[in-house]
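Predict structure. Input: Adenosylhomocysteinase, 414 residues.
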Amino acid sequence: MENYITDISLAPRGHDKINWVKMYMPLLRDIEQEFTDTKPFEGINIALSIHLEAKTAYLCKVLAAGGANMGISGSNPLSTQDDVAAALVEDGLFVAAHHGATQQQYMEDLNHILDIEPDIIIDDGGDLVHLLHSERSSLQKRVIGGCEETTTGVLRLKAREKEGTLAFPMIAVNNAYCKYLFDNRYGTGQSVWDGIMRTTNLIVAGKNVVVAGYGWCGKGVANKAKGLGANVIVCEVDPIKAIEAVMDGFRVMTMDEAASIGDIFITVTGCKDVIRGEHFQLMKSGVLLANAGHFDVEINIPDLKAVAVEEKELRHNITGYRTADGRWINLLAQGRLVNLASGDGHPAEIMDMSFALQALSAQYLVGHKGQMDKRVYDVPAEIDQLVAKKKLASLGITIDSLSDEQRAYLESSE
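Output follows.
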């Protein structure tokens, strides 16, 4: 099939990136060897839409080693790396992805990869699933099932399940222990600050950092900020999470209260309009706005444009908005995922665990074809446990195990 990428000549640099992360992804290397021997995806078409950078590319190569015919796109135009896309094409995989794609081109790319008529979907945010429930619904009959990488995507799936419209089984990879405890917390925590610091070249220590959302991603962002010396404020709508933030040592208040205090604002909620026009009116000059939620709707950009009399690129990936009273409000990465649009995403060692879950969950779907209902499933516990064991082994760590007597004691009602 014809590939849809920006420049095949970029492939050598892309290969270097993929080879670098492969060195630090021992779980996927182990699975690649297993898949090469067993070919669990022989005759299977897999459509994958995840942030297309080096770690995702290696996952694609692992799935292809298992016999899969891959259709690959990105899940966010600003996170796609054209050199990585070119490297995959040079390796013989089908890719439709462009860095900086318009919304129309982005949707065209997703439709191109659906043209392979997928058996398995691997999604990040739910755009592929949405297409398969709308304009590409004719492809549903072939789909065995799929896997979803993110909190936002799982929320969309749960809504479909509740409505009774979900057309095929989906595994919520995001909800696995080995995903959210590590990827969402430590991965997001590190990569968000990497993206912010390399983009702004400003210090974090001593600043007031406002984190909107105290789920696992928000916990990671807040705790990394604390470690960098920031004064952290958390904004939440869930009273239980708010209490947790208080007991973790953070100030908790409404966004209305935080708006005039914060120096750096980071949204990590999965919701829209978290920071709005009334908040922009209260902010200090020079504030930094960043989003780490999947879609670019958490910071209301139309409201921001409405309060501005001037809009200017102040630095690469930073758009400054000057208000009538002379304040500058600075938006990073167009309000898109700051850790990927302004950085390289989560560390390789973290994504090694998440993508091991993806690969093994896809294998599970193929092995249970026709046996699963049209609903959202958790990752099977045995897969979660296997990934944890593989990770410990890769670190050279051994742990205790229960004796038969101990196991019997724990399982007894006496």
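The CA atoms of residues 112 and 315 lie 34 Å apart.
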